[in-house]
Each structure stands twice: as C-alpha cells, then as structure tokens.
Amino acid sequence: MVTGVIVMFAVLLVAMSISVPIGVSLGVATFVGLYFFSDMQVVTIASYCFTGLNSFPLMAIPFFILAGSLMKFGGISRRILDFAGALVGTITGGIGMVTVVASMFFAAISGSAPATVTAIGGITVPEMKQKGYDIGYAAAVTAASGTIGVIIPPSVPFVIYGVVSGASISDLFIAGIIPGILVGIALMIVNYIQSKRNGWEVEKKPFRAKNLWESFRHSILALLCPVIILGGIYAGIFTPTESAVVASVYAIIVGIIYKELNLKELYIAFRDTALVNGQTTFMIGLSMAFAAYLTMAQVPNMMASGLLGLTSNPIVIMILLNIILLILGCFIDNISSCIILTPILLPIAVGIGMDPVQFGIVMTLNLAIGFITPPYGANLFFASAVAETSVESIAKRIVPFIIAAWVVLMLVTYVDPISMLLPNMMK
Q: Do residues 137 and 123 make contact, with C-beta atoms less than 8 angstroms apart?
C-alpha cells in the first residue's frame, strides 16, 4: 500500500501541475490507488464521498458563503469600510489601514478569504490607486488582509477541521479571535512602515470622534452581525451551523433595511453561492475519499512514527510541521489540505502534547499564509483580478506581509494562551 500512496501523490501532483481542477485531481488519484493498489472496489469512492458529506456541521459552509455574498450586495461591506475609515483612516497609510480593519470586521461575518478580498478590495483598491499607492502594493495589502477571513470566526476551514478532527467547532471559533487580531495588527504595522517609506498618505490628519460616532451609528446593523453570530453560539441559543443560517437571514433583513438589496442582486447572491458550493462540495467529497485511503494505508501512523523517531523535541517537530503546511498550502486548496493533512499531522501534534484546538488554529494560519505565498497563492489571483494587475507585481510587494504573518504563526505555535486562553475561560 505504501507504493500505492506514493503513486497517488504523484498522480495528484501531475494532475494539478497541468491545471486539472483540484477535486478531479483528488478523484483520479484516489481511483488509481484503489484500482491498482487495493483489493477494495472502486465504488467505495462514492461511499466515502457520501459518508464524508453526510455531516450536519458542513451545512454551515454554503450559508456562510451566502452571507458573505449578501453582505457585499446589501451595503454592509460599504458601511463596514466607512466605520473602519473613521476609526483608522487618519493614520499614515490610511486606506491600507482601512483595508486591514475592514477585512477583520468582514471576516467576522463571511468566514472566507476570497470573499473578503473581493468584497473589500473591490472598493479600497481603486481608492488606493487614486491616492498614489503602487497598484501592486494595493493588491498585496488586500490579498494579505483577506487571509484574516479564515482566522477570525466564523471560519469555513474551522468547520472543516472540526468535522475531520472531532474538535469542538465552537472552541475553534473562539480560539481564532486573538490570533486573527494579531495578524491584523501585524499587517497594519507593515502597512504603516511601507506607507511611511514610500510617502503614501503620510500627512497628519485629525481624528474626529464625531465622524467615528456618525459612521458607527450608520453601520451599527452591519457591525452587530458578528456579535449576533458569536454571541448566539456562546449563549447556547444556536449551534455554529445554525449561526450560518442566522447570518444569511440577518444579511437579507439588513440589506432590505438599507434599501440596497433588490431581487436581482438576491438572485445573483444565491446563484453565486450555488456555484461556489457545488465546486466546494465536490472537492470536499473526493478529499474525504482520498483521506480515507491514506488512513487505511496507515500513512498517519507512519508519519507520526517517522517524525517522532527523528526527534522528540516538540519545538523541532512543530517547526517541521509548520514547514510542511506552509509548502503544501502554496499548492493545495485550504479545504483539501485540511481534510487530507489533519488525519496525518494531528496525531503528531497531539503526541507532543498540543491541544487539537490549538493545532487547528496553527494549521489554518499556515494554510492561510499559503493563500498569499507565490506562485500559487489563491488570494494573489483574486487580488490580481480585483486590481487588474499581474500576479508578479503583487508577489514583489507581498513579502513583508508574509514575514509578518510568519511572526504571528510562531507566536501562536509556541505561546499556548494566544489561542487557548479564551476557550479555557469559556469552560
């Protein structure tokens, strides 16, 4: 079976290198493994797909996607940007600061990195270009800010990780708050330094409490959304899955109140959600089949034995795990990576004493950094489309943001309270 696993990964890499969709690549690789290196029937692929998708928590994914789409059309993202502008827009590099802060607020609603990039970047990138920012930099700060979308709760990857690992999704949500805020602060520091160095919006602007209050008053309904989502979960009113439905319904109500959501836009939001969810569900199902084969081949046990045999030092082991996740995050989709790698790497992390919830945060942060790491980071392509510039121009400007994210990753990996303080307080 070891030969089968090697061949499966070879087929997967070759398929992805010739631009075969990730879901199809996973399906073909699993088929090859089962047909040529296993006594099991190929029809079991369908069985694993169905079993993997037959999960109530996964219902949260389409509804969080829908909520993010509705908020883009319903005027919520614009009001969040206005509030962020009043809050940090007077600082050096103001529009860049607004992009980061607005992404943090939007992340607390959508749970998706691409949704955050398109919703926030579609508004801030043209403004940054108008104010003299380098267009590659404008796209870079937007792409980097989008990574917060999968760290600050609610987060689609947290849902996936919770389903695969059995960890509490509620604990994952609350554990992501502090790391998400730290990533945001790190990105703002980089933006400040870069803006100061390049002379982007460096003039001193007065902070006006009246403007902040006015923008808060006009955006209160939008800002209440994350409070309702997280507050409802931890008050025991609804589950994380049900919170996704609540977020979608709330987004519709707020869009109607703001008079910015009409039937045409409602149709577009539902249509886009159906398309994205169809692609995501197909990929998740085949990822589950791929991961099941790896488990049958005892790859997780072999990996754990191999790493623990090399060294028993937890610091070294976590460095190795981070390197593996950072590299794979550049090439494989976040969701697929989570499903495939969790059964392999989680036993290693637990074996050195790491809590499964903390490892979920570490894994998600690693894969989020992969979103912005050239050459295949997904956020780079979304930001490229939004800014109408090349990925190469973004890659030149994204490096300082990647380094800042690495610093936060090291803190989250080795300082347990950053991710575990809030979950432990809630128990």
A: no
User: Which tokens go with 395?
Assistant: 């890659």
CA dihedral 61, 335, 25, 53 (to 10 degrees): -40
Counting DSSP H helices and E strands in the chain, the numbers are 21, 0
Q: Torsions phi, psi of 311, nearest 5?
A: -160, 150
Q: Are 41 and 70 in contact (CB under 8 A)?
A: no
Global model pTM greater than 0.90: no
The CA-atom distances, in angstroms, between 214 and each of 10, 105, 144, 322, 354 are: 57, 18, 29, 44, 45
Q: Which two tokens stand for residue 40?
A: 């099991």
DSSP 355: -
DSSP letter string, 34-95: HHHH-SS-TTHHHHHHHHHH--GGGGHHHHHHHHHHHHHHTTHHHHHHHHHHHHHTTSTTHH
Q: Give the start-to-end residue ranges of the domains of the chain.
A: 43-426
Spell out the per-residue pLDDT of the chain, length 427, in tens: 678 788 888 888 888 778 788 778 888 888 888 888 877 777 888 888 888 788 888 888 888 888 877 877 777 878 888 888 888 878 888 889 999 998 888 887 776 777 788 878 888 888 888 888 889 999 999 999 988 888 988 888 898 899 888 899 989 999 999 999 999 999 999 999 998 888 887 656 677 788 888 888 888 888 888 888 888 887 888 888 888 889 889 889 988 888 888 888 889 889 988 887 887 788 888 888 888 888 777 777 777 777 777 777 889 999 999 988 888 887 777 787 888 888 888 988 988 889 999 999 999 999 999 888 887 677 888 888 888 888 888 988 999 999 999 999 999 999 999 999 999 887 6
Asked if residue 123 lies in contact with residue 81, where contact means CB atoms within 8 angstroms, the answer is yes
Q: Which residues of 256-266 are buried (b: 16+ CB within 10 A; e: fewer)?
A: eebeebeeebb
Q: Is 385 exposed, middle or buried (0-12, 13-18, 19+ CB in 10 A)?
A: middle
